[in-house]
Amino acid sequence: MIINGNTEIVAHIGFPTHAFKAPMIYNPWFEKAGVNAVVVPMGCQSPDYATFLRSVFQLSNIRGALITMPHKVVTTHLVDEVLPTAAIAGACNAVRRLPDGRLQGDMFDGEGFVRGVLRKGRVLKGASVLVVGCGGVGSAIAASLAAAGVAAIGLHDARAESAEALGERLRSHYPHLRVSLGSNDPAGHDVVVNATPMGMNEGDPMPMDVSRIAPTTFVGEVVMKTEMTAFLSAAAARGCPYQIGSDMLFEQIPAYLEYFGFPSTTPEVLRSIATLKY
User: Fold this and answer.
1) Predicted TM-score (pTM) of this structure
2) Residues 85-96: pLDDT tens digits?
3) Sheet-wide strand order for 103-106
4) Measured between alpha carbons, how far is 82 from 95 in angstroms, rounded to an integer?
5) pLDDT tens profile 114-158
6) 11 strand-pairing partners
7) Contact criterion met (CB below 8 Å) for 226 and 253
């Protein structure tokens, strides 16, 4: 990759930077596609972040910013416009500058999950879904499932107040969505999502009673450290179609590219050229 005076920058902002994966996926794609752009890791600690975010968008050749921990939540209060998915999730992981100079924030974790489910042939419109785990990633997935037209969503979290708060945000943006709280029983749902670390390894407590998951239910996982978690393996043994955690990452990158106005691609191409391994 040759960087020159016409190179556009995508800032990847967070702290610490040593675990950042985006440069190892985006930059090989930009080189393959002949796009004169580069994702640059930028380590910024919390006390400096509010000032830095505004400052970096003063650059004339910045195309956008990828936002990661620990800044996703506070970003919703620093941009000028928060799109509905980010508002429901309570966090932003992408920021772009609008033509009028305002900064707009959105969230793509859930979009990656939903794109993966749809590309596997599952119909979400009118479906009933269960999301176990209502933290950052669970909230983002729930928001994107609502945007995809699900009819009903069940929310469960070990901290009941987290599920309640997410339910309120969902209802405010999607008043016709049926939202239920408190139960992690997967029976009767078309799609179930484990948005917790539970069930990662053999012997771990499961996020739900796997014996209650129907073989026709689509099962999603968010853990990326292990491809086939104990939870997914148990669901697969019941015959359930499923989605591994890293699919969410690779499926959301085309959405990011489109958001920033770059040529898009497919997760398969990204996996083939990425310089990271799971």
Assistant:
1) 0.89
2) 999 999 999 999
3) 37-43, 8-14, 62-67, 94-97, 103-106, 81-82
4) 9
5) 999 999 999 999 999 999 999 989 999 999 999 999 999 999 999
6) 40, 65
7) no
What is the amino acid identity at position 270? L
Q: For position 169, what pLDDT does the model report?
A: 96
Please report the domains of the chain, with CATH numbers, ordered by start residue: 8-107+248-273 (3.40.50.10860), 110-243 (3.40.50.720)
Per-residue pLDDT of 199-252, as tens digits, reads: 888 888 999 999 999 999 999 999 888 889 999 999 999 999 999 998 998 999
Judge whether residue 276 has pLDDT over 80.
no
DSSP the chain: ----TT-EEEEEEES--TT--THHHHHHHHHHHT--EEEEEEE--HHHHHHHHHHHTT-TTEEEEEE-TTSHHHHTTTSSEE-HHHHHHT--SEEEE-TTS-EEEE--HHHHHHHHHHHTT---TT-EEEEE--SHHHHHHHHHHHHTT-SEEEEE-SSHHHHHHHHHHHHHH-TTSEEEES----TT-SEEEE-SSTTSSTTSPPSS-GGGS-TTSEEEE---SSSS-HHHHHHHHTT--EE-HHHHHHHHHHHHHHHTT-----HHHHHHH-S---
